[in-house]
């Protein structure tokens, strides 16, 4: 037996336990990491997992710190409404009428509840991003009031590179962190076009029963 082993090596594997299959069985779900700005009220910051005012990539409860300023590429966007809790609801179809009103009752209910404290409801545009420094695609749901306002500066830059920064916002006795979006002229390394098209196709055609990890208070605590 090898040093430290308590069981003979020929007994730790077997026909039903091929070593090459283990990684694929324990790998995370087939979903993109979530791109997020972590403010001072984030549980992750309080627990020391990431500095305040930094952007992070979140997947399988692991946060990768990508800094307070980062260059990314905005690939696409879609509307998204989420209700967290025991009965997780994710809806991508507001169904806007000619007057600009949301006609999908599920989406509208989440929008109406988003302003209610501790409702677990959030909505806003979700962007598909390419993050060159981490060599990954990610989704960024701008679902707070502050995020939705700054998303207006994201939409005109679809298909282009931008620099995301963070700033501290003060309003009366309240303070919170928000994103800043500015055009980026730095050349960024892009993945092959077929990879971009593949991610775009999945992003624009989410499964109806999609389930994903939504961190409690991820952006709902931001104003």
The H-and-E topology, N to C, reads as HEHEEEEHEEHEEH
Radius of gyration, in Å, reads 20 Å
Q: Helix- and strand-based class?
A: alpha+beta
Helix content: 10-25%
Q: How many alpha or pi helices? A: 5
Number of domains: 1
What is the overall silhouette? globular
In what range is the share of β-strand residues? 25-35%
Annotation, overall tally of beta strands: 9
Mean pLDDT: 88
Note the main sheet.
6 strands, antiparallel
Q: Give the termini distance in whole angstroms.
A: 59 Å
Indicate the low-confidence ranges by residue numbers: 211-223
Account of the protein in words:
The model is unreliable at 211-223 (pLDDT under 50). The chain has helices at 19-26, 43-46, 105-113, 145-154, 193-204, and strands at residues 34-38, 54-59, 62-67, 70-83, 89-91, 121-131, 136-141, 161-171, 174-183. The strands form 2 sheets. Strands 4, 5, 6, 7, 8 and 9 form a 6-stranded antiparallel β-sheet that branches. Strands 1-2-3 form a 3-stranded antiparallel β-sheet, with no helix packed on it. It has one domain. The protein is of the alpha+beta class and 223 residues long. It starts with 18 loop residues before the first helix and ends in a 19-residue tail after the last helix. The chain contains 5 helices and 9 strands. Strand 4 (70-83) and strand 5 (89-91) form a beta hairpin. The protein is globular and about 70 Å long. The longest helix is centred in the C-terminal third of the chain and has 12 residues, at 193-204. 19% of the residues lie in helices and 32% in strands.
């Amino acid at each position: 037996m090898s040093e430290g082993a308590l069981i003979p090596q020929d007994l730790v594997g077997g026909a039903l336990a091929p070593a090459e299959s283990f990684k694929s069985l324990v790998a995370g779900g087939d979903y993109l990491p979530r791109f997020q700005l972590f403010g001072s009220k984030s549980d992750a910051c309080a627990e020391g997992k990431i500095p305040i005012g930094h952007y992070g990539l979140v997947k399988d409860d692991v946060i990768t710190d990508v800094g307070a300023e980062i260059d990314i590429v905005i690939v696409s966007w879609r509307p998204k409404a989420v209700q967290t809790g025991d009965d997780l609801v994710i809806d991508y179809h507001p169904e806007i009428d000619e007057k600009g009103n949301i006609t999908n009752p599920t989406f509208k209910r989440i929008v109406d509840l988003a302003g209610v404290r501790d409702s677990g409801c959030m909505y806003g545009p979700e962007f598909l991003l390419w993050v060159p420094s981490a060599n990954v695609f990610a989704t960024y749901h701008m679902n707070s009031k502050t995020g939705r306002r700054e998303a207006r500066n994201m939409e005109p830059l679809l298909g282009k590179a931008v620099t995301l920064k963070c700033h501290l916002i003060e309003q009366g006795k309240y303070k919170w962190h928000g994103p800043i979006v500015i055009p980026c002229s730095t050349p960024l390394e892009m993945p092959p076009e077929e990879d971009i098209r593949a991610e775009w196709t999945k992003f624009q055609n989410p499964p109806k029963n999609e389930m994903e990890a939504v961190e409690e208070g991820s952006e709902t605590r931001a104003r």
